[in-house]
Amino acid sequence: DLVFGRRLLDGASRLVAVSGIEVDQYFQGGVPRERITLVFNGLDLDEFAHLPPRGVFRRLQGISEQAPLILFLGRLHQIKGIDFLVEAFALLRREHDHARLAVAGPDSGDRARLQSLVGQLGLEEHVLFSGPLYGADKLAAYVDADVLAAPSTYEIFGLVPFEALMCGTPVVVTDNSGCGRLVSEASAGRIVPYGDVEALAEAILSTITKCDESHQMVR
């Protein structure tokens, strides 16, 4: 960045941003707005044309149909805020002691720390680490989840919440991400401040209990 970054920014005829947050980032870096084009990341809608039936993921993971299921899907990395989600889940279980949390995704260096936190909170029986999910397995997890939580500290965009919405699953996302801004503008989910464990727990609880309101956000 120090050697080549400025030269690249100054020499580019046009810069493509994938979210309003990235537009702001370019602008703060000294790039004139007339040289910035906003092109959102896209979804292949055909991928969601034929969704798996509900119950596939739950059966594979041994999760009851009656248990509220919270899903995180993404890299297991410290910036993803999964530790705050685990702590929020511990609070949530005071109201729903049969709830389950599924953490799905490849390990990017944070799995051991997260599993240690799960152990410290006594949640080993209620939190599962499924590993990475792709294709039909990923869609099955979305379909079976009662809520998708995306508690990242910072994301330029983030497609996961929109994939969940395409599967009919309500979402809770943090306010300092590109997807958070878009979800907020569309009133398509609940927004929480990054790192606020109580707010995250409350938003997840509201999503689970206020079903009509949550599914109206999805629509």
Task: Lay out the secondary structure.
Layout lengths: L4 H7 L3 E3 L2 H9 L7 E3 L17 H6 L7 E5 L8 H11 L7 E5 L6 H10 L6 E5 L3 H10 L2 E4 L9 H7 L4 E4 L3 H8 L4 E3 L4 H13 L1 H8 L1
Parallel strand pairs: 1-2, 3-4, 3-6, 4-5, 6-7, 7-8
Helix pairs in contact: 4-9
Write structural notes for this entry.
- This protein has about 220 residues and is α/β, with parallel strands linked by helices.
- Helix content is about 40%, strand content about 15%.
- It has 10 helices and 8 strands.
- The chain has helices at about 5-10, 20-30, 55-60, 80-90, 110-120, 135-145, 160-165, 180-185, 195-210, 210-219; strands spanning about 15, 35-40, 70-75, 100-105, 125-130, 145-150, 170-175, 190.
- A 6-stranded parallel β-sheet has the order 5-4-3-6-7-8, sandwiched between helices. The chain has a two-stranded parallel ribbon with strand order 1-2.
- Helix 4 crosses helix 9.
- The radius of gyration is 18 Å and the shape is globular.
- The N and C termini lie far apart (about 40 Å).
- The mean pLDDT is about 95.
The gross shape turns out to be globular
Query: Roughly how much helix do the residues carry, as a percent range?
Result: 40-55%
Q: Helix segment count?
A: 10
Mean pLDDT: 94
Radius of gyration: 18 Å
Structure at a glance:
The protein has ten helices and eight strands. By secondary structure, the protein is an alpha/beta fold.
